[in-house]
Write a structure and sequence with these properties.
single chain; six-stranded mixed sheet; 6 helices; Purple Acid Phosphatase, chain A, domain 2; 270 residues; alpha/beta
Length: 270
């Protein structure tokens, strides 16, 4: 299975980049399944129902969220009517939506997508991500009921992301980190056949401070004072993410490539 994961979509620039480029990439790269992290797509804070529809129409088969899952209030009701959106499995017991779903491709292959929030340096005390994902790994053996499994590990600390990668190695097909908006250069296949990257980066304008127009963040760093709100940078966006090819019989990753398409970080296609 040929899988594309795109990191955190950041504001209008990120949305427009996904909407304009993803349809062509699906065809050119012969993608079977596309997962997009959309939790910053609406003004940099959460995801609205309308913008979720835009990303799905552009070719996303699944949208994952994060700690800003419900910053846009209409997502509280929309997520229950749209099964292609996955929120963190350990967000809150009373949260709407689901943190794990199984999808079927057009040719009948099945892929599980789950998202989990880390604990280190996060603003809220989320439940233990390792015990949260363990029943999923145990109940859906790779190469059994499903052909592939992707886990979106949404957190700050690279050490926690790496630990999750090793925890899932041999059981998930892909573990990819999100949240920090800075792409890491450590894409690899772990010994048990799990593709891993600490952070996929963002789909946004990199002439910024993690996707925000740089003036206000720099003012706060330099002076310790705020003057206005953070607003997403509006220049040309780079689509950042991870391309993974898996073996259908075993669910193992057989190829992994970092994706940097367009904008300031553009590189050759996988």
């Amino acid at each position: 299975m040929r899988i594309l994961f795109l990191g955190d979509v950041m504001g209008r620039a990120g949305r427009e980049a996904v909407m304009s480029r993803l349809p062509g990439l699906r065809e050119a790269w012969q993608l079977d399944f596309v997962v997009v992290n959309g939790e910053n797509a609406t003004s940099g804070h959460g995801l609205s129902a309308d913008h979720a529809r835009d990303l799905l129409a552009a070719g996303a088969d699944c949208i994952t969220l994060g700690d800003h899952a419900f910053d846009q209030r209409d997502m509280l009701s929309f997520i229950d009517s749209e099964p292609r959106i996955v929120r963190p499995i350990n967000f809150a017991k009373a949260a709407p939506g689901k943190g794990v779903r199984v999808f079927e491709t057009v040719d009948g292959r099945r892929i599980l997508v789950a998202q989990v929030l880390g604990q280190v340096f996060m603003k809220r005390p989320f439940d233990d991500p390792f015990s949260a994902i363990e029943p999923v790994l145990r109940n859906y053996p790779r190469g059994g009921q499903i052909h592939a499994m992707l886990v979106d590990m949404h957190c700050e600390a690279t050490s926690e992301k790496m630990a999750m990668g090793h925890w899932c190695d041999g059981r998930a097909s892909v573990v990819v980190g999100t949240h920090t908006h800075v792409p890491t250069a450590d894409a690899m296949v772990l010994p048990g056949g799990t593709a891993y990257q600490s952070d996929a980066g963002m789909c946004g304008d990199y002439h910024s401070v993690i996707g925000m127009d740089k003036d206000e963040p720099m003012r706060r760093f330099i002076t310790g004072m705020s003057k206005g709100r953070f607003t997403p940078a509006s220049g040309e966006a780079t689509l950042s993410g991870l391309f993974v090819e898996t073996d259908d019989a075993s669910g193992r990753a057989v190829r992994v490539e970092m994706v940097r398409h367009g904008g300031r970080l553009a590189q050759a296609a996988p």
